[in-house]
Amino acid sequence: MSTATAAPATPLTQLSAWKSLKAHSEKIRSLHLRQLFKDDPGRGTRLTAEAEGIYLDFSKHRITDETLKLLLELAKESGLRARIDAMFSGEKINITEKRAVLHVALRAPKGEKILVDGQDVVPDVHEVLDRMAAFSDRVRSGEWKGHTGKPIKNVINIGIGGSDLGPVMAYEALRSYSRRDMTFRFVSNVDGTDFAEATRDLDAEETLFIISSKTFTTLETMTNAHTARAWALKKLGDEKSIAKHFVAVSTNAEEVTKFGIDTKNMFGFWDWVGGRYSMDSAIGLSTMLAVGPENFRKMLAGFHAIDEHFRTAPFEKNLPVLMGLLSVWYNDFFDAQTVAVLPYDQYLKRFPAYLQQLTMESNGKHVTLAGEKVDYQTGPIFWGEPGTNGQHSFYQLIHQGTKLIPCDFIGFAKTLNPLGNHHDLLMSNVFAQAEALAFGKTPEEVEAEGTTDWLVPHRVFEGNRPTNTILLEELTPETLGKLVALYEHSVFTQGAIWQIDSFDQWGVELGKVLAKKIIGELEGKDPGGKHDSSTNTLIERYKKQRG
Ligand code: F6P
Predict the structure, then answer these.
(1) 310-331 pLDDT, tens per residue?
(2) Measured from the CA of 508, which atom of ligand 1 is nearest?
(3) What is the mean pLDDT of residues 439-447?
(4) Could you point out which of 124, 303, 352, 477 has its C-alpha 20 to 30 Å from the C-alpha of 511?
């Protein structure tokens, strides 16, 4: 094991930069953004960074130059550089699963070399991409026919977690680039309603199912896949029809074959692609079918541009590093529990949900790489809604509540749907919200408006609420790739600082195991009664009411 993959020698809280940040945070806790901007009129242009068409304004953060210096020192002392290099060179940095972490190889251009166990994986990546492209072209052109000779009009991706959230998010984000004469749906929940509603108005003769599962053993996905099979067979009759209406995306050829899908209709990926980092692997087949191979490749180029930026840019200009460090700052020194992600673009409506898995499954960890319990906070809770909808619901709490919630505002200079002054109105809200959160409204300002005394405190905005503003030119396949890579690497940065394994997910296991036991009881195969009194009573009540 190299030093970059091993647990760091010095515990995080013993690092000198950490200790300095602790002392420094006490000193500047009461410093207000109003003061910081007053003292430095150039702050709004100085504390910004730009790369690959992404402009990051981080001036509205409760930081001074000293804070930044110390955060950058923390990155250095944490060995972030060595960890980045270890990831890019295919070292097994996912130590608990003994796996390399190489989503960056999924978007490496042809000719680049990335070795896993001595073997270059880039040619394999391109071989799968080429097969996906050939298949997509056949389906999109109508050359690929269903069992009864009709072209495919509907595509249903069945998957969950990383095998669903990325594909749905990307489809919604790139809808404007998608085939409008085709229907794309996504079934994830084991709740039968999901499948029933997704298929109720579709003709099986024109429907293609993509069964997306890295393991091909996930209960929800396999249950939905079997239901889909029965649904298709009911209409199409013949077992042979499966070959025309089902394809698989997986790393598990054996299980795919067992399910009855010929491996020539399977698109593979590798154990070095984590589920939540897989939207640009074959898991993105639905995305490619929707937007076409060329747009898919543009998205990959966007990812790659930010990969290169992350790998090579000095930390003080490195967007994911800066974002990651600022997230650590509030999480660990201001007790901030959550981060709100607020995309001001309706096409990004599933982006917060996608980020929830990316960030929380990655950094929701309670022990270090060495297996020791952390004595600091790790991953914050991510949540959000597209603007301006959130403004009319939960922004009240962000502005005037008692909790500190750092926010990421994401906006585009150009809209894909120019309608009157809608876009300027939308963007005026991005700028207004970040301004209001930072500077608020003082009692004096409220009084000066003629507000009666007793009402003044209710109308005061304390301000000093930190935000990132991320501006891009236009939502395109390429900018989407850049945006996702930005967050992927910010998550990496945070995990490296917290000395945790950001690439395993043991926390999802226990519930799965218990559900497997309980299903036996619900189906009457097991007499049950072996749980705690609460669980036993709930199961009994359910069985009685269910009848
Ligand atoms: O339950 C969590 C998880 O393992 C995720 O990490 C993963 O993205 C999801 O399940 C789906 O897994 P699979 O692609 O193997 O079906």
Answers:
(1) 999 999 999 999 999 999 999 9
(2) 1
(3) 98
(4) 352
Known catalytic residues are 361, 392, 512
What is the spatial distance between Cα 212 and Cα 281, in angstroms, rounded to a whole number? 11
Q: What is the DSSP track for 442-502?
A: -HHHHHHTT--GGGHHHH-B-----EEEEEES---HHHHHHHHHHHHHHHHHHHHHHT--T
- Give the CA count within 13 Å in the CB-facing half-sphere of 520: 10
Length of the chain in terms of residues written: 547
Q: Any idea which residue has 């806790």 for tokens?
A: 29
- For 158-217, the pLDDT digits (tens) are 999 999 999 999 999 999 999 999 999 999 999 999 999 999 999 999 999 999 999 999
Degrees, nearest 5: CA angle 489-492-494: 115
Q: Tell me the whole-structure pTM to 2 decimals.
A: 0.97
Taking Cα atoms as reference points, which of 236, 246, 266, 245 lies closest to residue 254?
266
Ligand 1 touching residue 505 (CB < 6 A): yes
> Any idea of the CA torsion for 301, 303, 306, 311, to the nearest 10 degrees?
-100
pLDDT tens, residue by residue, 99-157: 999 999 999 999 999 999 999 999 999 999 999 999 999 999 999 999 999 999 999 99
Structure tokens at 390: 């959130």
User: Which region, left, alpha or beta, applies to residue 380 given φ > 0 means left and ψ of -120 to 50 means alpha?
Assistant: beta
Ligand 1 near 223 CB (within 6 A): no
Cα 181 to averaged position of ligand 1 atoms, centre (Å): 31
Alpha carbon nearest to ligand 1 atom 6, residue: 275
- Give dist(CA 278, CA 163) in Å, integer: 7
Ligand 1, atom 1, lies closest to the CA of 508
- Is the CB of 59 inside a 6 Å radius of any atom of ligand 1? no
Residue 499, ligand 1, Cβ within 6 A: no
Please give the radius of gyration of the chain, using alpha carbons only, rounded to the nearest integer: 25
Q: Strand 467-472 to strand 183-187: parallel, antiparallel, or no bridges (unpaired)?
A: unpaired
CA distances from 429 to 342, 344, 345, 435, 472 (A): 11, 9, 12, 10, 16
Specify whether the CB–CB gap between 215 and 278 falls below 8 A. Answer: no
- Greatest Cα-to-Cα distance within the chain, rounded to the nearest angstrom: 78
Taking CB atoms within 8 Å and a gap of at least 24, the contacts of 55-58 are: 55/470, 55/471, 55/472, 56/319, 56/322, 56/323, 56/468, 56/469, 56/470, 57/468, 57/469, 57/470, 57/471, 58/322, 58/323, 58/326, 58/468
Measured from the Cα of 512, ligand 1's closest atom is 1
Question: Which residue's CA is the closest to the ligand 1 atom numbered 10?
Answer: 161
Residue-wise burial string across 198-223, b where 16 or more C-beta atoms lie within 10 A, e elsewhere: bbeebebbbbbbbbbbbebebebbbe
CB-CB contact of 518 with 539 (8 Å): yes
> What atom in ligand 1 is closest to the CA of residue 361?
6
d(CA 177, CA 180): 9
Tell me which of 160, 190, 506, 510 to substitute to probe ligand 1's pocket, judged by most ligand atoms within 8 Å of the beta carbon: 160
Q: State if residue 508 touches ligand 1 by the CB under 6 angstroms criterion.
A: yes
pLDDT at residue 245 greater than cutoff 80: yes
Does residue 94's CB lie within 6 angstroms of at least one atom of ligand 1? no
- Average pLDDT of every residue of the chain: 97
